[in-house]
């Protein structure tokens, strides 16, 4: 079966920096609903259309195709007393105070000094050019429930 809109795709992948350094590799296959359901970046989805199980592809991603440009306005310096006493670099906190109540932004603590905590709301890969190499492991028709909910149900489902 070919990948097309409203098919469920299972794949393995490796994500590389522009310099060719491995950033991430699937330990378990991921599964998503193909066809503008926001399960995977659109440029990757386009490259996978009409592929079959066993096919591979490599997709070059500019920042706007993946995690967006780095936004300096998402770096904030806050008073340390606004955080738990055990706050450490690398901890993450959710902020739901954006324009859309459903939008949650994750901020990562990047520095702590002199009673201040620096948090960054950018994705760690924001502003980076990437390469996504993947192999299609399985393709199947989506169930009516999956289409209604807009995502895959079951093992390996990727939201």
Structure, described:
The protein is mainly beta and 159 residues long. It folds into two domains: 7-67 and 126-149, Chitinase A, domain 3; 72-120, Beta Barrel (Thrombin, subunit H), CATH 2.40.10. It contains two helices and nine strands; from the N terminus they run βββαββββββα. It has helices spanning 42-48, 144-149; strands at 7-17, 22-25, 30-33, 56-61, 75-79, 92-95, 105-113, 116-120, 130-141.
Write the layout of secondary structure elements.
Elements: E1 7-17, E2 22-25, E3 30-33, H1 42-48, E4 56-61, E5 75-79, E6 92-95, E7 105-113, E8 116-120, E9 130-141, H2 144-149
Antiparallel strand pairs: 1-2, 1-3, 1-9, 4-9, 5-8, 6-7, 7-8
Q: What is the alpha-carbon Rg in Å? A: 19 Å
Q: Report how far the terminal alpha carbons are from each other.
A: 23 Å
Kindly name the structural category.
mainly beta
Q: Given this structure, which CATH class of the largest domain is correct?
A: Alpha Beta
Q: Describe the main β-sheet briefly.
A: 5 strands, antiparallel
CATH architecture heading of the largest domain: Roll
Residue-averaged pLDDT: 92
* Strand segment count: 9
Order of helices and strands: EEEHEEEEEEH
Number of distinct helices: 2
Instruction: Tell me the number of structural domains.
Output: 2
Q: Helix proportion of residues, in percent? A: under 10%
Shape type: elongated
pLDDT below 50 for ≥5 consecutive residues: which ranges? none
Would you tell me which CATH topology of the largest domain applies?
A: Chitinase A, domain 3
Strand content: 35-45%
């Amino acid at each position: 079966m070919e990948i097309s809109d409203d098919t469920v795709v299972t794949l393995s992948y490796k994500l590389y920096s522009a310099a060719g350094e491995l950033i991430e590799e699937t330990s378990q296959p991921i599964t998503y609903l193909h066809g503008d359901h926001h399960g995977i970046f659109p440029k990757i989805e386009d490259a996978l259309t009409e592929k079959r199980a066993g096919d591979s592809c490599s997709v070059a991603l500019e920042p706007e195709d993946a995690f967006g440009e780095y936004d300096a306005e998402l770096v904030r310096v806050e008073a340390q007393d606004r955080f738990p006493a055990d706050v450490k670099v690398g901890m993450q906190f959710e902020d739901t105070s954006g324009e859309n109540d459903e939008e949650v932004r994750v901020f990562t603590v990047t520095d702590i000094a002199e009673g201040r905590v620096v948090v960054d709301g950018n994705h760690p890969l924001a502003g980076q050019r990437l390469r996504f190499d993947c192999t299609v492991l399985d393709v199947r028709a989506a169930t009516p429930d999956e289409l209604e909910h807009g995502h895959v149900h079951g093992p390996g489902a990727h939201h």
